[in-house]
């Protein structure tokens, strides 16, 4: 199995060079490394070329940063490998990362494989062990911030290919389609995962494949743009995937998820960014909903997927410790109490 790496990047040449160095050390050498530069101004493109990567320049030709989703789509379209690895520019992979995920694809017949992401600064802590989505449309990075341990060493089936670091069969992208460019950045992989789940294209979590992530390294934690995009994209997820009957049925989980996100944004001093994101989401939602009308059915399949994913989320929280957000979400919208009319 040949592997093409696609790395979207926007500035932070130092991070990109560390990521590329980890790929040069892989026990299964990449067929190619495609760095998709989104208009960097710090010499990232030149540094990538010096490191032996092929550079696809997107933002410089189109007047600036075109977003994470557009950059990934450009890279996937150009990739030639049997499998395609998506990697953030702030991730470093263990030398056997590619080998272990390729082996997981071969032995399980999964469509994609994700590994265990550890915090680059605290290497005994989990950055993410896969994702889950609740009935309210909010996503959770499983295990984030927890001390690594046996709970995170269990291989399991998943439908959510975290775009931070994932290896997928080429045909996976042909089946599910490109990343949703309306999202620009954040939650685009959740959108991809929901489409994969609706098509029953399951992946696998392989904990022996280790990578280290410097989370929010480009913009920083609780950056205003991050809050704005996250707020908008949560609204767009609801608009794209939830038919009217499911919006009514899940109105309590949706209200709880959105209220608690607003509280978090306000607590971090990002009320203006939250308001901008909410406005943008409500403005853009009708057009996206019309454009994807044929994509939605009666919502029963999606309801099953979300309920199962939320149960996984809750089981992780119960086993490894509750985040305040999810504790309150479960209090406000416990499973099994939504209205079915």
Q: Helix and strand layout, with pairings?
A:
Blueprint: E1 3-9, H1 13-24, E2 32-37, H2 44-50, E3 54-57, H3 59-62, H4 68-78, E4 83-87, E5 91-93, H5 97-108, E6 112-119, E7 126-128, E8 131-133, E9 139-141, E10 156-158, E11 165-169, H6 170-176, H7 188-198, E12 203-213, H8 224-241, H9 244-249, H10 251-267, H11 271-291, H12 300-320, H13 324-332
Parallel strand pairs: 1-2, 1-4, 2-3, 6-12
Antiparallel strand pairs: 4-11, 5-12, 6-7, 6-11, 8-9, 10-12
Q: Determine the CATH topology of the largest domain.
A: Spore Coat Polysaccharide Biosynthesis Protein SpsA, Chain A
Quaternary state, please?
Answer: single chain
Give the total of beta strands: 12
How far apart lie the N and C ends?
A: 49 Å
- Give the overall average pLDDT: 93
Inertia-based shape: globular
C-alpha Rg (nearest Å): 19 Å
Question: Sheet bearing the most strands, described?
Answer: 10 strands, mixed
Describe the structure.
The protein has two domains: 3-213, Spore Coat Polysaccharide Biosynthesis Protein SpsA, Chain A (Alpha-Beta Complex); 224-332, no CATH class. It is 46% helix and 18% strand. It has helices at residues 13-24, 44-50, 59-62, 68-78, 97-108, 170-176, 188-198, 224-241, 244-249, 251-267, 271-291, 300-320, 324-332, and strands spanning 3-9, 32-37, 54-57, 83-87, 91-93, 112-119, 126-128, 131-133, 139-141, 156-158, 165-169, 203-213. Helix 1 (13-24) runs parallel beside helix 2 (44-50). It is globular and about 55 Å long.
């Amino acid at each position: 199995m040949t592997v093409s790496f696609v790395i979207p990047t926007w500035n932070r040449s130092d991070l990109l060079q560390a990521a590329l160095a980890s790929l040069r050390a892989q026990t299964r050498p990449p067929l190619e490394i495609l760095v998709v530069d989104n208009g960097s101004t710090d010499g990232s493109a030149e540094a990538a070329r010096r490191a032996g990567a092929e550079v696809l320049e997107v933002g410089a030709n189109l007047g600036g940063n075109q977003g994470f989703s557009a950059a990934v789509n450009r890279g996937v379209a150009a990739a030639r490998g049997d499998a395609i690895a998506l990697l953030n520019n702030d991730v470093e992979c263990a030398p056997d990362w590619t080998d272990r995920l390729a082996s997981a694809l071969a032995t399980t017949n999964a469509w994609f494989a994700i590994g265990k992401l550890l915090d680059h600064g605290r290497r005994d802590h989990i950055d993410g062990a896969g994702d889950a989505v609740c009935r309210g449309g909010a996503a959770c990075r499983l295990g984030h911030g927890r001390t690594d341990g046996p709970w995170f060493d269990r291989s399991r089936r998943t439908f959510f290919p975290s775009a931070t670091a994932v290896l997928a069969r080429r045909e996976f992208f042909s089946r599910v389609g490109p990343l949703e460019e309306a999202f620009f950045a954040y939650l685009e992989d959740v959108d991809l995962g929901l489409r994969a789940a609706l098509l029953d294209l399951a992946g696998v979590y392989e904990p022996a494949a280790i990578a280290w992530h410097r989370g929010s390294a480009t913009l920083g934690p609780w950056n205003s743009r991050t809050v704005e995009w996250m707020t908008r994209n949560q609204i767009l997820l609801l608009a794209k995937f939830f038919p009217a009957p499911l919006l009514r049925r899940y109105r309590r989980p949706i209200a709880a998820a959105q209220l608690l996100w607003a509280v978090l944004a306000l607590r971090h001093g990002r009320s203006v960014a939250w308001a901008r994101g909410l406005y943008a989401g409500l403005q853009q939602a009708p057009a996206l909903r019309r454009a994807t009308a044929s994509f939605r059915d009666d919502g029963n399949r999606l309801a099953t997927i979300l309920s199962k994913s939320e149960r996984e989320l809750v089981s992780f929280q119960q086993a490894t410790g509750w985040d305040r957000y999810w504790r309150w979400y479960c209090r406000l919208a416990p499973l099994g109490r939504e209205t079915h009319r």
